[in-house]
Design a protein that fits this description.
Distance between the termini: 150 Å
Shape: rod-shaped
Strand content: over 45%
CATH topology of the largest domain: Immunoglobulin-like
Largest sheet: 8 strands, mixed
Radius of gyration: 38 Å
CATH architecture of the largest domain: Sandwich
Number of strands: 24
Helix content: under 10%
Oligomer: single chain
Length: 293
């Protein structure tokens, strides 16, 4: 009796594990749009998966993109709930988190939005909100960025040494300790207009109403200024070459006293004022001042 030896040869079948993995640990500033969470797959497309944010399931997503990006601006934990590919259900693993950081707020402060060609400089102050470590200024005049706190900026001059009349867009970028940033903009106007206001009476009686003779002006060359008050006898009883010492907006002005600090009597006085306008034109003003008490 013949005996046969049967040898059975088994070809191993390669097994493929279907799986999905979610990952990401993102920091997102409140003004930065969205953060990206990644979901990668092993298996045969298309892929179907469900994920949750802070335990709340989202609608199923079907995709052939691998890895798939979830863009979101919601803070919290991101987890896979289920996954399957074109063949079968697969396993899930991983985890992701988005942390939202409060961004700073950039705020520019300055005393005026309009400056004059005769002195085109301006102090800027940042009153921005947040734990700020860097402040970057740009003045819109091709002078480049400046990283500084509360700058004083001189705008461009023409060949005559006067400011170039224009509108300049100022920007301030602030950065906080978390590398979050914010940007603020403000327009500054450089103008070359001229005007002057001169009152005709005042009452230096210390009642806090019109106690000083004061003026307001724009577009004059302050270093050319001179002012004289003359009594009926033709005597100069008061004089000044400092225009800012007479500015109403500085709470300055002439208090009705003579050069010796003595109160002048009630009456009408003549004034003479000399100065140059911003473009060099010489100007002379004459008039009367009524001193009443």
């Amino acid at each position: 009796m013949k005996k046969f030896l049967y040898i059975l040869l088994f070809n191993p079948v390669m097994s493929f594990s279907q799986s999905a993995f979610i990952s990401g640990n993102e920091l997102l500033c409140t003004n930065s749009g969205t953060a990206d969470i990644s979901v990668s797959f092993n298996g045969t497309a298309p892929f179907t998966f469900v994920y949750s944010i802070n335990g709340v399931n989202k609608a199923a997503i079907v995709t052939s993109t691998n890895p798939f990006t979830i863009s979101s601006d919601i803070a919290g934990n991101y987890d896979l709930i289920s996954f399957s590919d074109a063949i079968s259900v697969g396993t899930i693993s991983g985890g992701a988190i988005i942390t939202i950081l409060q961004a700073p707020t950039a705020v520019i402060s300055n005393i005026t939005d309009t400056i004059h060609a005769i002195d085109p400089s301006l102090q800027f102050t940042s009153i921005s909100v947040g734990n700020i470590i860097n402040q970057t200024w740009n003045y819109g005049d091709n002078s480049g960025d400046e990283i500084i706190d509360d700058p004083i900026h001189n705008f461009p001059l023409n060949a005559d040494g006067l400011g170039v009349a224009s509108t300049y867009q100022i920007s301030l970028i602030v950065e906080d300790v978390n590398s979050c940033t914010d940007t603020s903009y403000k327009n500054i106007f450089v103008v070359n207009d001229y005007w002057i206001y001169i009152p005709n009476s005042f009452s230096p009686d210390n009642d806090n109403l019109n106690d000083k003779f004061c003026i307001e002006y724009s577009g004059i060359r302050e270093n050319t200024f001179s002012f004289y008050v003359i009594n009926r006898e033709g005597e100069i009883v008061f004089e000044s070459e400092n225009s800012s010492s007479l500015l109403c907006s500085n709470n300055s002005g002439w208090d009705g006293k003579n050069k010796n600090g003595t109160d002048l009597i009630v009456g009408t006085y003549v004034y003479e004022m000399y100065y140059q306008e911003w473009d060099g034109w010489k100007n002379t003003k004459h008039g009367t001042i009524n001193l009443v008490r």
